[in-house]
């Protein structure tokens, strides 16, 4: 067999292996004297917990080896066994381990040749699987797994390859976890503390038929097992010592530990990761133009915008017998946020808040065949319980911040009990505790306009999604030319929602009724996949069947519509050319629509009295069909270049369509379709010789039809003379995340321990680590609308935001003190303090209102309230009483106040990304 | 590493990373932008500049401020709310309004507030629809009691119109006074809508009928008429046993000791004119005397007293000496003398409206 074929040993095409929790160890065992392959040798991984045997050519492959370090023993009667105890396996990759065994008759040491996996040329490595390890996250200026994954080519935040939010799936240790209720508008509710992470990766091409529920990408996370020795980290980072303007009230505390439990082989890993920020969403907005604006005093921090996050994870790994391993994993995440609302700038106590809580309990029982098995079998049985609860609205009482932004208490909301009881009868009346808002009298301008006070907006939004998922995966190797993957899953879910708008008012003809739903969908899937190898060619053929049944009760959604079904074939072929690897994939993917679109909703769009959206229980899958061609090159030993060309057709995308003639009512349907095509170029210089760099460039176009019931008026126009449709609805327009160009450069460097100048014999810069991330992205599209927001100006998403870029860096100085090791670090985001525009007003196309518009809305506000303001009124401003008669009256005195109030209210804040943010950290490891 | 050593190191690590006492810069906090003191100074200070009417001040028991009824000129329904001004004036510290959005289609008036030492707040609330052609009388009028901390969680004591203790019809209540912990005294009023001239719009004329003592300690409020209070126009209370009052068209001030039912004339302003709005603190008695006041018999209605204000006169009860407190030509009414007896707040009638003034008592 040629070397190329050895590389292809098991010839799993990279793509199908993507998103697994483990990789493979493959190689050939040969006689050190004759060079012939040795048949019947046993390969034992981790003391025989996993393993396999060699075929008649001496080739072997051990599949489904979990990511991380492993001990491998190769033995054969008549030969001296070889042990290697530091074999690093990464998910989706095959590490090559070639072994020369010495016959026992000769007293010569056996030889092990460990070939580091060639992540470029190895066809088993997916072309566009972009990985980051937990250790890398610690060394880079990123905090969360989401931020780390966003460094991947084709990612715009949590949007991948032009897809909208929620079109990705999250796979945790092989178990799919998804917020199926409102993934397109809400978060997952779970955050993986990076310290329990082995690695995270983003897969954007044709992933294995094992995985579904995503049409734009998979975020695959593998957590660490408790190892053979104890290790851990305690860290605290903050920006408190920094001067005013640089202090955002950041506190993050982290404690992690992992190690063995006794000598039974069991292990434990646990992490507590708490973070709080006095301004959880700082913006790099310009200073206010009004001198009396209190934001001038501390423009960096917005009031009532703090947040706190608590993440706790625990994992137990227990061997059961010689062939089984049981893993139990628990993760609890709570995020509480006070939300700044410009209307409540001067009465923040009435501004909204939200709480998201997520809990995951998972069990994984793995059975593997032992060493010597020629047809190794791996069976994975997983079960997971996922519970996500969301609440948004007005707080019953303001929490007390006890340490930084930490309140250490659970937020309580007005109407919370009503929502959780889903009591739509009681909610018909005004909800107790709610007071009607009125114009605030606490602004510097005093006038009754723009700013609210005295009561909250009256929103109650609550939902809960629960899921019990059972998943069975069987991996069967058949010699070295075929592998089979079979499996399936079933998920029983429960969706509960409650919404009420204007809760301070009873329901009437202008106030939409409260909506609630409680239904129990069932989702199921089955798949079969095989890989066949013919010399240098590898083929993968997979078929996945998905179905879901929303089971929306007739009382909510009318008649039952039964299950929706989808068949998704996936094909791939790969080959190794001279110095390059080529992979072609084709796949069809389906994802269940958000369950929120199956049921009715009432909501307040702030410009109207409230809108009503009819649920559509007959919604079907959203689909995508993707072609991709990938070419990987290795110009030098330490550099690599990858190029991915892809075309993805989207179909059945959920969109709102008009419901009857009521302009404020809509229903959702699988109405839109689109196209995403692009090229990704990824250059990497591996971190050797003290430095490494990775450059990713993406050229992409993502378009789709854009049906929107609320913005319909301008989209479909008819020529008044001939009656032709000028802007037919089935024309594709840029998708919201259609970023044409994006470049991400990640560089890392490390000074050797003894290098650099010395101070009192101490190498000042010895061991210094530095990492930097530069990101450039061309502007995202947006739509212009009229001032009311319900009529498009021009075509959908026909305008573009300015381009944006940022430079982040992290410098770490390892320290060793009294036998303790650790480090201090400085993490700086947006070093250049670039003011990136991330949104604009739809009516102006700019972050700001025009002067003419400001004048107009000020004039309108004055006309609404032309009455004078007497001296004793809290609205009275002495400096505005030009004639000193105790009454601010008339346009001469009142209009300037209204204009200032308008300018204050309309000042752009959240149209800008974060400013420069620094944090200092100290960590100790053991 | 031994277990003990490991634990020690853990503790050391924890101690090393626990932050100590750093404080954050906080986000901005809105300032107080309105003036804290009234403009000007001297013995006569104008406290309110409201374009609408400011009516019926009533001091808090501790003298730290006073409630009054203010007409919300910034609201299309012109609601009348209770406002609390600090003792020296300045900016309204608190406002109690009917803020139920459903009430926007009516004029909702809160009036005649009086606060008990224990924080209970009694007031009269009335509501009239905004509809064109609506009846002149309110849709409902209630005498209610609540607390300062939650003034909207109220207990209705009486609704109007009702038959008063004397058998006459009462359209409303004014000049509420706490008499001890569980008794209120008020002027039971007739409210007439009388045009002041041919084709003039009707003028609302509240006129006292009698003093009502309302015992609210029991399960059901019990009302009784105070003896000798027929045609009473104003009332003041000192201690828990003494009631001072004036009557329509009369220049005398009466004192009624409830425990003995002894009624006496304590002062007669004589030719000074009709006395009303009596207030007493210690040996100082204040009243509005004369001025723009008339007492007449309106056909089909009965006796009415129309009060357009007048000068305030102080009387030293120990000597009977009268002192004119207010400048000549200014018409005041509805005096509220603060608990110390050193200053008063009163309505100053200016044209079609009234504002409140703070007056030092000599």
Question: Could you write a compact summary of the structure shown?
Answer:
The complex is a heterodimer of chains A (926) and B (362). Chain A is mainly beta and 926 residues long.
Outline the structure in words:
The complex is a heterodimer of chains A (926) and B (362). Chain A is mostly beta strands and 926 residues long. Helix content of chain A is 6%, strand content 46%. In chain A, the strands form ten sheets. Chain A has a 22-stranded antiparallel β-barrel. In chain A, strands 9-14-15-12-13 form a five-stranded mixed sheet. In chain A, helix 7 (851-864) packs across helix 8. The longest helix of chain A is centred in the last third of the chain and has 16 residues, at 890-905. Chain A is globular, with a radius of gyration of 30 Å. The two termini of chain A are 47 Å apart. Chain B has one helix and 28 strands. A four-stranded antiparallel sheet of chain B has the order 1-28-27-26, with no helix packed on it. Chain B has a four-stranded antiparallel sheet with strand order 2-3-4-5, with no helix packed on it. Chain B has a four-stranded antiparallel sheet with strand order 6-7-8-9, with no helix packed on it. In chain B, a hairpin with a 4-residue loop joins strand 24 (312-316) and strand 25 (321-324). Chain B is globular. Chain B starts with a helix and ends with a strand. Chains A and B meet through strand 16, strand 17, strand 49 and strand 51 of A and helix 1 of B.
